[in-house]
Specification:
The chain is an all-alpha fold. Helix content is about 80%, strand content about 0%. It contains four helices and no strands. It starts with a helix and ends with a helix.
Amino acid sequence: FFAQRAEVEGYSEVAAAFRDVAKSEEAQAMGHLEWLQEHGDPVSNAPMGSTRENLDCAIVGEAQDAELNESAAQTAASEGLDVAADWFETVQKADAKHKARFEKTLANLSD
């Protein structure tokens, strides 16, 4: 997003800097994933690595995200922050859909 905005505004060097840093961040993320594959997912306490294991981890993660966003929506609503509450509810619904999709995918996964 930042690189695209810089490009639109005519700052090609800034856009290149954002893209270069994004590539570095992606490499860091891959390093984190390699560590998680070796040690397991701290959220689900499940192993990672195979497609089936990764789907299990994703299902637990999406469920946790949905719960957190539902709680955030309730808190925001109770504090009169209706715009924030609406946003958290939208994200919660998306997380629930992601979870359902991963569950369906796992159920249909051939051995």
